[in-house]
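stage 2 :: seqdesign
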């Protein structure tokens, strides 16, 4: 990771995970990256790979070297988009999020959405998007009565996404 003009270390940005550094996915402590061998102060510990992953620096994730070296993916499953380069960026250069049954990435406008974070009914109502998001989710025919049981860090948790193109919010729900 390279310092900016002020000497501060700049962490990579992730198109499909803009709030990564506010999530519980990044470990902020010193370790050695299993991919590049450099001493790092921020890393992730998760990848779908045959290797046991304990430390991958965010630069190796962002540039695709970690996925290439370990033959792995960071995302378990996602909706389909037509551009293979977008799929490559999501699966091989974007950290996943933690969920009960494994993450599932939503798409809109033929591109993957940005993962915003965990939500419950309370947070969706505070944002003023609950009715719209639940109506679309109900049309998917997954969990019923989800609005009644959705809690940010509960047994039924919501994962909020936002389209990078039209700005529409989308909800994925998972349960323990």
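stage 2 :: out
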């Amino acid at each position: 990771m390279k310092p900016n003009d002020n000497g501060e270390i700049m962490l990579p940005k992730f198109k499909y995970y803009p709030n990564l550094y506010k999530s519980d996915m990044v470990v902020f402590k010193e370790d050695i990256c299993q991919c590049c061998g450099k001493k790092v102060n921020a890393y992730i510990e998760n990848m779908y790979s045959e290797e046991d992953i304990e430390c991958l620096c965010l630069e190796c994730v962002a540039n695709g070297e970690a996925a290439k070296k370990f033959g792995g993916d960071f995302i378990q499953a996602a909706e389909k988009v037509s551009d293979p380069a977008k799929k490559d960026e999501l699966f091989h250069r974007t950290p996943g999020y933690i969920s009960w049954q494994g993450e599932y990435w939503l798409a809109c406008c033929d591109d993957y959405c940005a993962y915003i974070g965990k939500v419950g009914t309370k947070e969706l109502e505070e944002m003023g998007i609950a009715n719209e998001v639940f109506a679309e989710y109900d049309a998917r025919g997954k969990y019923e009565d989800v609005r009644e049981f959705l809690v940010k860090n509960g047994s039924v948790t919501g994962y909020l996404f936002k389209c990078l193109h039209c700005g529409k919010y989308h909800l994925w729900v998972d349960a323990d």
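stage 3 :: structure notes
- The chain has a mean pLDDT of 93.
- Residues 1-74 form one domain.
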